[in-house]
Amino acid sequence: MFVFMDLRTPDPARSRAFYGELFGWQASGPLFTAADGPWGGLTHLAPDDERSPQWVPYAPVDDLDEALARAIDLGARATRPRVDLPQGSVVVIEDPTGATLALWEPKHS
């Protein structure tokens, strides 16, 4: 199960327009939104960023450090370091085949 999606794109405005026309998706700034709130983000890929444009799913975990250690033990590698946000913490990995996935630990109250 995924809890969020992030579109990494070199042209957020063009992507926003494309998905708006294709699916009727609404975007507010860097977020795709629905009636119940944001469900996806638009991340700008800088010209010197070597990654390809892509959708990145966020998988929820109970303990981010534990999940990251387990993923690495299973052959993944961290491609972006842990980021702590007001809503929770995230780290981006590539699985052993090169597929990108974000591990997401929501903030516990």
From TrEMBL:
InterPro entries, A to Z: Anthracycline_SecMetBiosynth (IPR052164), Glyas_Bleomycin-R_OHBP_Dase (IPR029068), Glyoxalase_6 (IPR041581), VOC_core (IPR037523)
PANTHER family found in the cross-reference section: GB|AAF24581.1, GLYOXALASE-RELATED
Domain VOC: 1-106
Source taxon at top rank: Bacteria
Annotated protein name in UniProt: VOC domain-containing protein
Pfam families: Glyoxalase_6 (PF18029)
Organism lineage string: Bacteria, Bacillati, Actinomycetota, Actinomycetes, Pseudonocardiales
Species for this entry: Labedaea rhizosphaerae
SUPFAM superfamilies on file: Glyoxalase/Bleomycin resistance protein/Dihydroxybiphenyl dioxygenase (SSF54593)
